[in-house]
Amino acid sequence: MLEEILDSARKAVAGLATTVGEGTKDRTNKLIEDWLDIFPTLGTYGLEITSFSMALALSPSLNVELLGQHSDWNEEAIKERLVAHKGETALTMVFTAIRTAYRLQRQTRAPLRDPLILKVIVRITPEVRVVLGQPVLED
């Protein structure tokens, strides 16, 4: 199922050739392709895709939400993953965002709430959001 979703997304991005300039199209396609490749890896680390969307426009975007357990993301596990995937920009960005979110959350001294929510928004400038606990209001 995930492979079908990823293939459809790849085809949709490739279909933008007529509406997006060649340079922008190539850059956007490459960026989305690079990010699509990380989701199976994140799945092996206990993050399950709960929402997947793609917007086709002059500047296409990909929006993926994943759900995980805090127990799969302790400091040692994150360090190991950073070492194992050194040089892989997208994965490193995700792991760094998760590590930073946990560090900042600990500084608040507030109780850690379930679940771990990872939101990956890929456009010309990718964005990674980490939510620790269920948000009441969406931004």
| Count of individual domains | 1
Q: Would you tell me the structural class of the helices and strands?
A: alpha+beta
Radius of gyration: 16 Å
Q: Widest sheet: strand order?
A: 1-2-3-4
Let me know the number of strands.
4
How many helices in DSSP terms?
5
* Elements, N to C (H/E): HHHEEHHEE
Strand content: 15-25%
Question: Would you kindly provide a brief summary of this structure?
Answer:
The chain has five helices and four strands; from the N terminus they run H-H-H-E-E-H-H-E-E. It is an alpha+beta fold and 139 residues long.
Secondary structure layout:
Elements: H1 2-14, H2 22-36, H3 38-44, E1 48-55, E2 61-68, H4 75-84, H5 89-108, E3 116-122, E4 127-132
Antiparallel strand pairs: 1-2, 2-3, 3-4
Helix pairs in contact: 1-2, 4-5
Labels describing this entry:
alpha+beta; 4 strands; 139 residues; four-stranded antiparallel beta sheet; globular
How would you explain this protein's 3D organization?
There is one protein chain. The protein is α+β, with helices and mostly antiparallel strands. The chain has one domain (2-132). Helices cover 47% and strands 21% of the residues. It has a four-stranded antiparallel sheet with strand order 1-2-3-4, covered by helices on one side. A hairpin with a 4-residue loop joins strand 3 (116-122) and strand 4 (127-132). Helix 1 (2-14) packs antiparallel against helix 2 (22-36). It is globular and about 50 Å long. The two termini are 29 Å apart.
